[in-house]
Design brief:
The chain is α+β, with helices and mostly antiparallel strands and 288 residues long. It contains 11 helices and 6 strands.
Length: 288
């Protein structure tokens, strides 16, 4: 079980890099929240005052959303005090740094600009994409998905892989005498599935090399190939355990994945549009 204190970067026993990353996350969260403050005081009350600087409930919630996914699963009440403490500590340290003019140093200015760029990168894409990701668009993607994933034939098969045709014929001879296929696979097969009795599970035609698929799909359920099948891996004896037809996944089953694909495609399109409109010159690592 992950220690909540380590996730939230308490000071005791936590590597410096982890504390830095947490401070960075909270700083980004605070920067965004100050520029987008909600007007409704009742739903977003002030939860702390530090030298007249107000911290709102939304600041804490936004910081929680910046935590690793596993930490986000904890109830808000369980992490609230830790996050508020981090927000306040970050503000105090940052204020002290500004008094010492650290924010004017060239190196720090570049780091702050990089953080600002990352925040604006996400905000800009969110603004452009949110209106375009509709249920209608996702359903259009699903129709494309369904048309390209029509009913598929799959089989479940076992195989025994050996190095020579002579060895394969000997296996077939023993099978004809009634020896159990799985036992022979465990004894003779050089393939990784040999330990499982040669079981390959279910697979579609395109998942296997052509000659193997041809031999497997031509074999009836409950039967084994009477002639060994040659591939680049060696000689195979194939037994078909079952055949089935698999229908495409339903809209509800793939909706989340399709939505992600739509978002990724739109982001790529926006970035390509910006790159095409820009003058970009890539130099070598030596600056030449």
């Amino acid at each position: 079980m992950i220690n909540l204190r380590s996730i939230l970067c308490e000071t005791s026993g936590i590597p410096a890099i982890n504390k830095f990353l947490m401070l960075l996350v909270v700083a980004i969260s605070l920067t965004v929240s100050l520029s987008t403050r909600a007007a409704n005081v009742k739903s977003d009350p002030v939860v702390a005052l530090v030298n007249d600087v107000k911290f709102y409930k939304s600041d804490v919630e936004r910081a929680r959303k910046q935590l690793p996914l596993e930490a986000q699963k904890y109830p808000s009440a369980a992490v609230y005090q830790h996050l508020l403490k981090s927000l306040i500590d970050t503000h105090l340290v940052a204020t002290a740094a500004r008094k010492d003019m650290l924010d004017k140093r060239s190196k720090i200015v570049k780091q702050v600009r990089r953080i600002e760029d990352q925040v604006l990168h996400k905000a800009y894409l969110d603004e452009r994409i949110v209106a375009a990701v509709t249920d209608e668009k996702i359903k259009e993607l699903y129709e494309i998905f369904r048309n390209s994933n029509s009913d598929k034939k799959e089989i479940r098969a076992r195989h025994i892989l050996v190095e020579t045709r002579e060895q394969a014929m000997e296996v077939i001879r023993q099978l004809n005498e009634g020896v159990n296929f799985a036992n022979l696979a465990k004894k003779f097969s050089t393939g990784p599935s040999g330990k499982q009795g040669g079981d390959l599970g279910y697979f579609s035609r395109e998942r296997m090399v052509p000659s193997f698929s041809e031999g497997a799909f031509a074999t009836s359920v409950g039967k084994f190939s009477t002639k060994p099948v040659k591939t680049q891996f060696g000689w195979h004896i194939i037994k078909v355990e079952d055949k089935r037809t698999v229908k495409p996944k339903s809209f509800d089953q793939v909706k989340v994945q399709l939505r992600k694909k739509l978002i990724d495609d739109l982001a790529d399109s926006i970035i390509s549009e910006l790159r095409n409109a820009a003058s970009i010159k890539i130099l070598g690592q030596d600056g030449k």
